Amino acid sequence: MPAPTQLFFPLIRNCELSRISGTACYCHHRHLCCSAPYLAQSRLRYAPHPAYATFCRPKESWWQYSQGRRYASTPQKFYLTPPQVNSILKANEYSFKVPEFDGKNVSSVLGFDSNQLPANAPIEDRRSAATCLQTRGMLLGVFDGHAGCACSQAVSERLFYYIAVSLLPHETLLEIENAVESGRALLPILQWHKHPNDYFSKEASKLYFNSLRTYWQELIDLNTGESTDIDVKEALINAFKRLDNDISLEAQVGDPNSFLNYLVLRVAFSGATACVAHVDGVDLHVANTGDSRAMLGVQEEDGSWSAVTLSNDHNAQNERELERLKLEHPKNEAKSVVKQDRLLGLLMPFRAFGDVKFKWSIDLQKRVIESGPDQLNDNEYTKFIPPNYYTPPYLTAEPEVTYHRLRPQDKFLVLATDGLWETMHRQDVVRIVGEYLTGMHHQQPIAVGGYKVTLGQMHGLLTERRAKMSSVFEDQNAATHLIRHAVGNNEFGTVDHERLSKMLSLPEELARMYRDDITIIVVQFNSHVVGAYQNQE
Amino acid sequence: MFYRLLSVARRQRTGRGWQNWSSGRSSASAAEAHSVALPAQAQVVICGGGIMGTSVAYHLSKMGWKDIVLLEQGRLAAGSTRFCAGILSTARHLTIEQKMADYSNKLYHQLEQETGIQTEPLLSSLLRRMPDLETLEILKLVNCPETFTPDMRCIMGESPAVQGYFVLAGMNSAGLSFGGGAGRYLAEWMVHGYPSENIWELDLKRFGALQSSRTFLRHRVMEVMPLLYDLKVPRWDFQTGRQLRTSPLYDRLDAQGARWMEKHGFERPKYFVPPDKDLLALEQSKTFYKPDWFDIVESEVKCCKEAVCVIDMSSFTKFEITSTGDQALEILQYLFSNDLDVPVGHIVHTGMLNQGGGYENDCSIARLSKRSFFMISPTDQQVHCWAWLKKHMPEDSNLLLEDVTWKYTALNLIGPRAVDVLSELSYAPMTPDHFPSLFCKEMSVGYANGIRVMSMTHTGEPGFMLYIPIEYALHVYNEVMSVGQKYGIRNAGYYALRSLRIEKFFAFWGQDLNTLTTPLECGRESRVKLEKGMDFIGRDALLQQKQNGVYKRLTMFILDDHDTDLDLWPWWGEPIYRNGQYAGKTTSSAYSYTLERHVCLGFVHNFSEDTGEEQVVTADFINRGEYEIDIAGHRFQAKAKLYPVTSLFTHKRRKDDVELSDLHGK
């Protein structure tokens, strides 16, 4: 399935929505700012566009729709029943258990649970998980797309191949290259663990393969003969940079096939952050580009849970990133390079794949857009050059890599897009997952300070607490459990069914204002295996 | 009627049938009225005077046998035959059942003339004239026992244990329909040694002692009964009486999503449902169209073609024949049509033929040593093949035949990467120079010793069969799966195997081959030692056939204008039309994921346009025809082939065609 374009749509939509329902909602579409003055103009100058029509209802019908539902005035009418809530929450859940063949396949990873809850339509988040077949280790990643899902989709399909190839020893690369040359069957590199909804682009498969092959051919040529241990950190950095470079090159070169040509341009003009974990035995590497996050769940000796952050957000809240950007550009740009907490006043994450608008020279952007297909030429967003654009590139896909040596008390890793982290504190995330996975609930006294609580409400809380003891909300998937909390938690930190039901019954057009796409992978570690590693030394 | 009728009446009904049989007989002369003294001996004794017994007696007498005794405890046709509604349905599920019913229909018309009985037409005319009679109240409701079988088909043939003991029973409420035909085939069998049609599907020997447990019969028969009136969809699996025989890997495979079918009591994997992939509910999955497992089997087939798959094929029947001297080789040379005097370590594909040159069994035999052979046959051959060998082998304490089916777990490693997996596990080179095709070697795999590794896959794809002593099965499987990971290994099932073998034109016994098809009729002359001057069963028939030409020829058909998604699928038994004339029926079919077409195998006959008589079929005759396959009344164009499509045997691909997905583990 081709990934539908959304280059322009989110901007328009958010502007209109904020005008329509200005109260009580705060704009969640944070990656790309919608309040900059140029956007008002661009909206006015907007020419009707076929891609737009397919995804956005005309304004009038939207009004009828929302008024017909009378969402705001009588919300209780539209409550979803618990089974309906469950079917929405579980639609994208996926679990994988590492197969063990009686001690043959010992892995420090027990398995993982993952899930996604869309707010955008279609969802712009992506997730990937795969086992490296020719080297040891497992790769897991979440990708948060912006300005459409084309880039996040491409990165979710391709990045792990670039990583796996970067990790391959010289002989294996040679063997694969020879197999391609002589038409033999290739050694498989990755065993994917995909939900049926996680698709691969069939059309671009050959193009992607050719770019990847060029990469490994270069790695083969670069080999100096002195075989050294491959450094995982270096491999991760190379892979990220190389893929972003290929995305950029493919868009510049174009493709004779008009569908592919449009696809590579959409990939390059949209963007995506990536947070990827590589687990091999006790060696855990996290490569992060952007504002998704990797959080380690650690169980202390007293059984309580604490969170260890394994990635740094690349955004305006990170002093070091602000510093980096200022250093990378002339002094006179110090005020314009980050404005209103956004890169050039526009982009929330300070590192990302794609987004060539923040990477290419103005000349190159104009040239590619002019020679590109009409759809691209007609698109105001792609044509728009960011203000104060003097010394590109302003954006990089280079990841920050952190290393952590797993200990027996490290029970799980949560990878999630910012949709989760902006609704829940990391400590709560780790506690909820920890309690879910161990089946243990450290009952904390219900804190009511600061709120007026009626006896009825308190009764409700206590009843719910009892229900929770018996069924843990019947979730079989830690990520689903987390989403249930992220969306349904009330002021007291417990899931409020009414609230959950309300949030999930928001019409497509409104959902994005109350929450962002949420994508979560919970990787569970095998403490016995991790402990055995430790004892070996 | 030429046979003597004997009614053995019993005065007292103190017990049940057989226990009272001897007392009944001894008191027969003292019994009432028309009892006759029993003869001391007879050529044939038929027990039971219902429609079956009388039909067999009738046909035997028509064929010239005179010395027949028919025993009946009460009156003729007084059992279930009497209570049957008189309905003769000629729309049957199986071809052979169809033939029996058709014949019965004709026979009863003829008998009407012979005997003048016309009850049924009389009643119909009566009801037509006085329809009010239809509403007449039933005064007496008759409830009498009927016989059912575990697979809804009747039981017919000679007992594998007692020579000369023939059985015809288990009519599943269709006794009247089958009576005439079934009686005739059994009579032929008794008189000539074989029936004139292929009755394997009804043969008593398709069952073994394993299907005779009371609990099994009780459960299965309760399932069978309503199914008789159900629509017979292809690939139906019984739900009861399952998990009787299983491989030691059953649980392991089941946990990985295996869906099972049963043959001869043995559970075999059909395909493996990936996690998170839902199939239709049982009822919804009944279809004559594209089935819900289509994509699953496709990915298994693709993995067999490009990487490596494991199929648990433990259900295969496995015999060992050993001797102290040359006795084993000598008897096998006589019983099998291909030359078995091959160097130790070679595997021979060969038929076990009857006097008519037809396949009683089609098997692979490995020569383990000078004096010992390992024989692999289809699953359902366990009883039949054993009985056949026992019948033909001399009583010789120096010649030993052993059924080792239960001793070995068989894993089929299919695909271009099988060689990598196995060489890694055995520390031995497995390339064709070291391990040529159709070769058998005992070697170690992982920690386990004495694994019989054979370079064959029953599909024409590269790979190996591993015959593993069962105690090592789990170990070897775990090793294979673990090492195989980096080659993209996955489990596969019999549906993938079927697609692979049919697209390569591999005929299977029991589906395409039977007792009435000869090696020459399916292009297997190279598997027959006609030129070696050695005698073997069926040789004369084959020599004659070679001189005169064959009257039917197994042909492969590739459907051209068939829409896999929208059209009804072929399964088996579809009529083949050559230049618009009926020319035969298909025997099996499968979707070929490589050719992206349906492939059917079937026999083409050459019926004379004037007389309908069968004429010689030549290769030229096949090649010159325009073919159509009729699926449920719609004819599809088909290309006929006498040899498999050669491009299927080469696995090269152009480097321009490689995709990212080729690097996925399967």
Textual characterization of the structure:
Chain B: Residues 44-87 form the Rhodanese domain. The complex is a heterodimer of chains A (537) and B (666). Chain A is of the alpha+beta class and 537 residues long. Chain A is 42% helix and 17% strand. In chain A, a hairpin with a 5-residue loop joins strand 3 (125-132) and strand 4 (138-146). In chain A, helix 6 (150-167) runs parallel beside helix 8, helix 6 crosses helix 9 and helix 7 crosses helix 8 (205-222). Chain A is globular and about 70 Å long. Chain B has 666 residues and is of the alpha+beta class. Chain B is 26% helix and 22% strand. Chain B has helices spanning 21-26, 51-62, 80-83, 95-115, 119-129, 175-192, 214-227, 250-255, 294-306, 327-335, 382-392, 418-426, 473-484, 494-503, 539-548, 619-623; strands at 4-7, 44-47, 68-72, 155-158, 166-169, 258-263, 266-272, 309-312, 317-323, 347-353, 359-369, 372-377, 399-403, 408-414, 440-445, 448-454, 463-469, 490-491, 552-559, 575-578, 581-592, 597-605, 627-631, 634-641. The termini of chain B are far apart. The relative contact order of chain B is 0.08.
Largest interface (C-beta under 8 Å): A-B, 37 and 35 residues
Morphology of chain A? globular
Low-pLDDT regions of chain A: 1-30, 33-76
Q: Could you give the distance between the termini of chain A?
A: 49 Å
* Helix segment tally of chain B: 16
Q: Any low-confidence stretches of chain B, pLDDT <50, length ≥5?
A: 1-33
Helix content of chain A: 40-55%
Distance between the termini of chain B: 69 Å
What is the quaternary state of this protein? Answer: heterodimer
Kindly report the average pLDDT value of chain A. 81
The percentage of residues in β strands of chain B lies in 15-25%
- What is the topology, as strand order, of the major beta sheet of chain B? 15-16-17-14-8-18
**Total DSSP E strands of chain B:** 24
Q: How many distinct beta strands of chain A?
A: 15
Gyration radius over CA of chain B: 27 Å
